[in-house]
Amino acid sequence: MTEESTQKWLISFNPNLINKNSPADPKFFAQGFETYEVSCDEFLQLVTSGIAFSYAFTGDTRKSEYFSQAHCLCVDVDGGLSLNQAESNAYIRNSAAFIYTTPSHSPDVHRYRIVFLLEKPIESPAHLTFATRALAQMFGGDISVSDPARMFYGNSAALIARFDQTLSEVDVDDLIANGRALTVRKRRLAFTGTTTSRFMRGTQFTTETGGTITADQVSSKTVVRCPFHLDTNPSSFLALNDHNEVYHYCSVCCVTRWAPSTARSSAPAIDNFVETMREVSQAKNMKTFHRKAEGIERFMDGGEFTVASVEFSEERYLPDFNVSNGVLFVRSPKGSGKTEFVKREVARLKFRHQSFAEYEESSFEGDSRIYTDTSILLIGHRQALIGEMCERVGLHSYLDDNKLSHGEIIEKRKRYGICLDSLPKIRASVYDVVIIDEVQQVLAHFLSDTLRGKRHLIWDSFTRLVQNAKKIVCLDADLSWSAFHTLLSLRPPAAPCFVRINEWQETSGKNIDVYNSRDQLIEQLCEFISAGKRVFVTSNSKNLVLKVAELISHSKRPGGGAPKVFHITSENSKSADAQTFIKDVKKEILNYDAVLASPSLGTGVDISFPDDAQHVDVVVGLFVGGVTDHRDIDQQLLRVRNPKQVCVWIDPAKDDLETDYSAILADVQTRHLENLLEGHSVEAGHQAPDDLFTPMVARIVQDRHKSLNQLKLNFLNYKNDQGYLANFVDPDTVASKSGRDRLQVASDVLSAQKVKAIFEAPCLSLYDFLRVEDRISRIQLPIPEDLKNAFLRTRIERFYQCDVTQELIEKDQDQRLRTKISLYRRLTDKKRMQQNFEIGVDLGSDIKTALIADPLYRDMVLGMLLQHTPLYQNFTFKPDVEITKDDLNEFASKAAQLAVPLRTHVGIKVRADIQSKPTQFLNKLLDLIGLSLIRTRSSGKTGVKQYFYALDPTAIHSLDLYLQPLSTEEELDLATAHQEMADRYGIGWCYITEKYQHKFNDGQWRWMFPGRDSVGELSPRNTLSGHEKWAASVGLR
């Protein structure tokens, strides 16, 4: 400690609070904190006198708003790292002032506080929180002890370890960066975290073999124990990226940390694709580019990058050019005629004759064939748009296959349009020409949750189609490196590549009104409607679209009537009404006062009018953060090509997501690959999917992270580059409050409407239910809202096997109650749980079980943990057993041991205070099952009460009733009357069939019950058999 005798720190002390004893007046918990300037010796003397301390405040009141500055940081360690281990820790020895044990310290459970005195005080409450959290995670301390008004008790009987060191300003800055990463945390389900996070100067990492290594010693990937959490099994590594910068990645922290010398920040997204290609086009030899440029290194041989040609243009509409064999990349602004270019190219490839005169001449001696033998495939990413696109360019949409015979489908598939999700349908096909519209979004769709379970099949189908085609045409207004890398990686090394970039730009100086308040813009939207303006509202939040549509519907037009409103979201985008709207959108939009759309109408739809007529008065954009990037936002706003006014609100929040390609690639391979490609088996002779798939995913994630880190700024820069001028609207607090109130009312109305609609819907028969279920999950065709409500109601009634009430529907919303009941059922199923534990998986040490969430592991970790309480024995919950905090010591220790699998599979983090507050954590686990603790009584000496707890018997009774709604006799009667139905579909369907007296004809019965195969297994239903006839009977196409 520098100049120990003269150095002083500002610390507040309260002599009314001694050794955790109750004060004379409860007010002293907040008042009486006087700030003193003390040396380290004086600080320690006061603490060991039992006097409580805190940070410096303005006045003597300990309250967050009165926080002035912090001259110290404290970490409370409660179990975990022993006192001896802490004393020998290099970081503590070099940076801490002292350690003192707290009153609850014991030889069995070490409890102590590490105190760091700061070289420079922290004046920001947020920075104090970040730094404290980072230190707490580093030493397994209590991460909740981080607020700017935290009080720390002294201890007159403390054991002391002195180090007399100060924490440097540089190290505090690093802690703040690390703590921010922990606070802004969407880590477990998102890709790797912050770019600003650093490890400390001189940080020593322990290798697998027990040795130590520092950043400057790293020459290759090295597995190490993470020094930022208690890492008993190595869960991290050190590595070098492409620029020889050292980074540390931890699969438990889900954060990438960089060496202190690495200058990294969340800078605005910069796309260098165009400029790099310009350099290629200007090279002396047009076919080779000799300078090594970021983005094309992997396609270079000896410093040369081979490209057939790169051409630039500045045309209002994309010009025609010859499409040779190879890969053609076309980048051209939105509204510049990319679809018309595809239409002309399809016609050229599709028809043998390009004019009627040519056809007549060829048919002089007999009719000539109309079509060529060239097969053409168009790949899109949204069902709602592929039909309209196919109709515009002259291809057959796969959505219309149900209108054709098998033979007609085979012929139509020669010139075909299909969504990425459905590519396995044509997996064995080979096409001469493959056109990928909106290629950036098509590739990004590989990360969509809708592909879960079939992603590997779709990727395999996609790669086969691209590898076997003679020509690939990729189009996108924002075509960039992720598409360029991916498509060329799938082609042979010598395959020719062509790049066409059209740089036309709007020159009219259009304005865009930017609002800082979402609610203010919503209020302004209502005023637009009241003024008689036609508006188009677009958002990346389905819920926001539904709420705004509801509140607009209660606005008034100038004449007093209600506005005509139409909305499109993922819920109704496949409906007949939505498809009709999309197919003739330029006409249909004029029938409404307000049209609202989520990303289901985000791309591919051109709402423009002849002579650039301005039939839409205002386009309003409402965009939350972390969902779509700034390019997607622009796509959504520009669906209407020439509105009179554009108003937008974009979430201004910033993020610190990782943007280094190497670090993201490591994260994908470590945590996400198995989940992304679940169930994949590599066929003989084919390349392992991850060899090509993971680089694509990493590039897409990199692009996305660069955008999301500064979403609003990136959008504004993007619009500025397009020639737009931003007009920042002055804030209006009154309008903001009114908009917020409107939104809340709309939310309440929608929730009540949904419950009522489900309640009033009919209960479907087993036959109709299976048809609807197949249509939704297997055939993936739309169903109307009334049929969906009936489907939801039937699921509820089948599960609960009782009369459906609105109260039950409210409890079951989002399947919350059903999920708890199902988990309770599994945890009390003795045979099932015993079989789970016989698998032999060690959840505490097997790192593979900690990476990917799995329902089996969730049941196992909960069962294993709860068995360490007297309340759950032999897979049975015991409501008659009382417990105290002392009865949960084993439970708390086991929870700390299973901290990682609990976070991964259950979604709950084990707090550092688990040993001192085990009942609080136990209650959190029990809530997942629909159970809770109740306090039964208290006893003990005066001033030291001991509380007793038990399981709430009413909760167990309710769950048991839900699990057994029918008596054993009733179930037996139903199973006897409907034996085949009970065997295949369960007793719930016997209950519904009997209750509503559903009847089935012979054909329906044979379809539902196809019998058993030769080995006695239930034969599967033929999903497509009879589906068209059923769909027609209920008014579906």
Automatic annotation (TrEMBL):
Gene Ontology biological process terms in this record: DNA replication
Source organism, top-level taxon: Bacteria
InterPro entries the UniProt entry points to: P-loop_NTPase, Replication_origin-bd, Slr7037-like
Replication origin-binding protein domain location: 322-492
Pfam families: Herpes_ori_bp
Molecular function GO terms recorded: ATP binding; DNA replication origin binding
Protein name per Swiss-Prot or TrEMBL: Replication origin-binding protein domain-containing protein
